[in-house]
Structures are given as C-alpha cells and as structure tokens.
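Hi all, long-time lurker, first post. I run a small reading group and we've been trying to get comfortable going from sequence to structure in the token notation. Rather than ask abstract questions, I figured I'd post a concrete chain and ask someone more experienced to write out its structure so we can walk through it together at our next meeting. Sequence below, copied exactly:
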Amino acid sequence: MHYVKAKSLLTRWNGMNIYRGCTHGCIYCDSRSNCYHIEHQFEDIEVKVNAPELLEEILKRKRQKIMISTGSMSDPYQPCEEKLMLTRKCLELIDKYEFGATVITKSDRVFRDIDLFDSINRKGKSVLQMSLTNADDDLSRIIEPNVCPTSRRYEVLKEFQKRGIPTVVWLTPLLPFLTDTDENFNRLMEYCLDAGVKGIVCLKIGMTLREGDREYYYRALDRHFPGLSRQYMIKYGNAYDVVSDNSERLMRRFHEVCEKYGIIHDPERCFAYTAEFPEKYEQLSFF
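-- Answer (accepted) --
Happy to help. Here is the structure in token form:
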C-alpha cells in the first residue's frame, strides 16, 4: 500500500476511485488489463489520502444534487478500508451535503456503513450495487479468494432490503466451463429475487479477456484447474469477448425472469437508474 495526494477526484460521469489496485485476488479481474496503465503492482494499493478533502470542495461548489459513484475500477471496501475509512468519510460528506451515493462492491464490509446508506437514501437516494458471480462457496473461495462468498453477499443484500435501500446486482462474469451452468445461474437468480433487487446487469453469459488480465487468468486456471486454459485458448484464442455456449439460452431465461418479476434488466436502464438523482428532492428543496 502506498499513498498519493490526488489532484482531481471525480470523472465526467461523477465517479471516483479512492483506491487504485485491489487485494481481493479475483482471478478474472478486468482491472488488471494493461489498458488501464496501472504502473505499480496491482496488489500494492494506491491510496488517494486526500479524497475526502477533494470531494468536499466539489460538493460545496455544486448547486445541482447528483449521484456520486465509486467502485467501477477498484473496490471501495477492500481490506485497507477497515483501517483507513476513506470510503466512509466520503459517504459522510455525501450525507452531510445531501447528495446521492452508489457503490459497486463484492465485499460485506459495506454493511459497516449501512447507517450512512440509510440516511442518504432518506434524504435523496443511495444504491448498493453488488457483484454476484458464483453460488458455490467452495468454488468462490478459489476464483475470488480474498473476499466473502456469494452467500454472505446475499445476506448483505437482504439487510439493505430490510432498510428499503435499493440494490442492483452485477451478474457478471460467468466463466465458461466453470460458472456458466444452469445450476449456478438459477441459484444466483434465486438470490436476486429473494433479496428484492431493483435491477440486474448481465451483458452476456461469459467474460472479457485482454492483455494483462488474460495472462493472469490463465495462470490461475493452470494452478487450480489444470488443462482448462488450453480449452480457452483453443476455443477463444485472443478474443476480447469470451462468450459461453450457454449464453443465448440463459440470457433468454434471464430476460424472461426479470420481466416476470419487474426487475430492470436492460443495462442502459440500470445505468440510468443508478445515475439519476430523484426529481422530487429538487422540488422539495425549491420550496
């Protein structure tokens, strides 16, 4: 872990990454890809120590309330957050200035801050976005070794549901030859339905692989599933889109289930939902 003082924080889409790199060890992580130009070891977390100060200056100046997001490139609830509490400090500021917040995580550490999500949601809007990739906890400990298993993430989703805090699930990636099965898909969908999620992002049954990420993934397959990387190379070569043979059938099922239970399942609609600050807040503030 090393510390930097950032010169800027929010992207043009109002997203922030307080940390750069990750120690969760997920074998498929796209953020390892060379195209993101992370110049330090991926597990050597870069910490933007002045993130709360930068965020407060931004929030003080903004007249229009917006949703602030975090977690698109680096999980905001990895182990170092327990000590540093930078994500919590940023949420406290969002709550103080009455903006909206959404986070993407696969860690149950987010439960620590449910009080802030609750407060932010009562004043405007907060959304928990959580990745669910595999319903088999034993397999999860191999492909996502340093993060809580999916069964625990489901429990966290249920706790947010009890508070009336909306949730969106990222049902991705689903790994060919490993987690792209009917059984895994059905169990994950059962989790989503029981947790009352607002939306599910599932672009395809498969994953993406590019330079940097691909090599890391194949080395992990060689350690844990000898011979499987060769199957990938024969079938997919150097393709970026790695789509399961089960994708068309399971995606059809996915859309049918979401339509039946009123779950947002168009990716663009999910993205719009997490980015939209409620108009009713602006109207109430006006009066």
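A couple of things your group might point at:
The mean pLDDT is 95.
Residues 280 and 286 are 10 Å apart (CA to CA).
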